[in-house]
Structure formats: structure tokens, C-alpha cells
Amino acid sequence: MALKGMLMGAADVVPGVSGGTIAFITGIYDTLLEAISSFDLRWFRLVFTGRFREAYDKIPWGFLLPLALGIALSIFSLARGVSYLLNNHPQELWSFFFGLVLASTWVVASGITPRRLQFWSFLSVGAVGSYLLVGLIPMSTPSSFWFTFLSGSVAATAMILPGISGSFILVLLSQYHRILEAVKTLDLYVLIWFIAGAFLGLVSFSRFLKWLLSRYSLQTLAVLCGFMLGSLRKVWPYQEVLESAQFHDKVVVLKTRNVLPLDGGSEVVLYGLLMVAGFLLVLGISALARRAQKKEELVHD
Description:
Elements: H1 2-13, H2 19-25, H3 29-37, H4 41-48, H5 52-58, H6 61-88, H7 90-110, H8 117-136, H9 145-159, H10 166-172, H11 176-185, H12 188-215, H13 217-235, E1 239-247, E2 250-258, H14 266-300
Helix pairs in contact: 1-2, 1-6, 2-14, 4-5, 6-7, 6-11, 7-13, 7-14, 8-13, 9-10, 9-12, 12-13
């Protein structure tokens, strides 16, 4: 179980690769949702009334603890490498991430049938809405405890959806680099607030997401596809800085716009290849997920 957690953790570090997809591939997705749903109102009531033994027995710790340890180990191991690439090779990394997110959108959309007018309508709403929303989110968002808490809550909620990356949500909130640095440097103040928000997000929304996907699967997934498609605006590797400011001997970018690589030369080829590599990686993971699903269906039959 710890190994499966390590695979999920590796996916959670990278925007565009979903930890929920890895859980699905490894055959623990349904068990994971049920385990998270165990932290319900009854569990909190048991804790607050001092019935700790009953609260402890209600949670499948034998499943969750090794999984969580594997996720944490993988995240802490990879954070330094990703942070280095983000600081020293940002365009190459964003090119790779662009391919990951584009492929994730394709994978989720390809699993939705039938793709009729309703699908395209909801997808369009999600795409236009996210494109406009991303443009409104500043390049630099608050570093206060409440925004860290909120970021953890939203990212964790996205993380349990196959195809939706929690790290990508952090990118949209302009918190990805900050949280990555906190993991790398063990900034406990940031990590505690982030983890607390993530826990609340998982506990609060796991049941709602299960209900939403069971009742309005097509509409929900169509909006999510549109959301990812419109959000590609945020990870486009070619950015022109329009406004920046100096804070404590550090230049902080405040506003950018996307541009076309009209004079990129050989770099354009490299960035294009990295996009293709990211795209193919997600397609490979998706193929493994479909194979795992078929095996599971055969076992149940």
C-alpha cells in the first residue's frame, strides 16, 4: 500500500497528472473514497465527546496510514527536483506541464459519451469561465494563513477526481511554487495550514463529489474538461512580462500575457517535444487505467 501511495505522491507533485487517476490504476480508488468518507459528522461527534476509541475504530487506519506515508515520502523526495527545474528551467517545465494538462483534458473528454449538444454546452461554459477566471487571478496571491488553508482545501478536493490535478489547481491559484518551496524547506507554518485545509477539503467534499458524479456525471465532467481547457492559458510557456515589482531584493512578476514563439529558433522545437512527451505520458497512464478497469470487470464477472 505504501508503494501505491508513493505513486500517487509522485503524480500529485506534477500539475496535469492526477493522484486520483493513479489510485484508479492501482485499484484502490473506490476504497480510498470510502475511507475518506469515514471522517463524517459521526466521527467528529465521537472525537468532540471524548469517545476516542470508537472514533479510532471507525477509520480504516490499516489502509490510510501506509498510503499517506507513501504519498508524503514521494512528495518530499521529489519537491527539491521540481523546485530546481522551476527556478532554473521554467519554460521547459511549463512546456511539459502544458502537454500533461492538455492530454488530461483529452482523456477525461474521451471517456464521456454521448458527446452531444449538452456536453459541448457545459464544456464551453467551463472553458470560457476558467479562461476568464485565470485572467483575473493575479500572478502573486496572498501568502497569509487563510489563503494557504483555502488553497489546500481546493487542491485536495480536485486531487480525488480522476483526471484533475491538485497541483494544477495550485498553479491556477499562484501557490504551486510557494507550497513546493515549503515542502522543500520544511516550512511547518505553511505546511500545517495547507494540510489542515486539505483534510477539511477531502472530508467535506468527498461525499458530495460521489453524489455529484453519480447523479450528474456528464455535466460535471464536461464542465471539468472545459475548466482544464480554459486553464491552459495559465501554463502556456511563452509569457511576456507586462508588470513587475521589487520586493526585498527579489523581482516579483505581477502581470504577464501569452505570446506566440515567433523567433524562438531551436527552443521552439525543444518546448514542442516536451509538450508531446507530457501528452504521451498521460495517454500511457490512461491506457494503464483502462487495462486495470477491464481486469477489475473480469474479476467481478
